[in-house]
Structure formats: C-alpha cells, structure tokens
Amino acid sequence: MAEPDPPTMPYWHVYTDADGVSRQKLCALSQFKFEGINPETAPQWNDKQAKTPAVVTFTVLPVGWVGEWHENPRPQWIAVLSGRWFVETMDGTRVEMGPGELMMGEDQNTRARDGRKGHLSGTVGDEPCTMIVTGLDVEPTVNRPGRFT
Hints:
single chain; 149 residues; Jelly Rolls
C-alpha cells in the first residue's frame, strides 16, 4: 500500500518586516512525516518542530476584551480552542480566528508608527475566547514569514 500524501496545516504568521512593520501571512506547516510516536503506536502525521524550552499558558479572553497595541512577548504558537478573536497588524491587515485555527506570533522588534507598535487584538462576538499559548525560547526573526513551514 502506498503511503498517503502528507497533509498541510494552515497558520497565520504575525511577523516583523525589514522596515519594522508588523504584517500577517497565511502559511502552512508542511514537513509532516508518517510515523508512530513510539514503536508500539500506529503511524500518524507528525511535523516535529525544533526542540526548545517552552512555556504553556491557557488563556481566557473575556467578552469585549481588547489588548491595545503591543508586541508578542516572545515567538509563540496560539491555538484557539473556543470563541473568536481578531489580530490587526500595523500594515492594516485584520484577521479573525476561531476554534481550531493556529497563529504564530512573532512581531517582536517592530518600530512605532502612528501610535501603533506590534499588533492590536481582541475578542469577537458574545463569548470569551479560550486558547492555548506556547511561548518558545527562540530568537525572533525579521522578515521571515512562514519560517516554520
């Protein structure tokens, strides 16, 4: 039996461009390998990321919450579990995300412009937004959207 084609997993990458402006680009994880997580388990699709220390935080953003303009504290994966939220970057792009959607927040080292630095984010709708945030202990990059693909 032939091995099936590897899947891809979309994610939004919030990043800083060469001019210090935050932007967003839809990217995809694409380095999946069909393997078991150990010899006793059936194979599954895994896209293993580089090993790094990480901090996991479960977050609940209340209805009406707005996080004024700010940078992500470190490069971090954010996965929405329930509810909806938006992220607006300095270039004017606004993306709304809901359950099952993934984002990499890597807008460190932006340069303030017109009262904006980093990104603006907040809840959408009439329910809280719950998420799992995995902060990575890695150096942020500049102008490398999709570096995790």
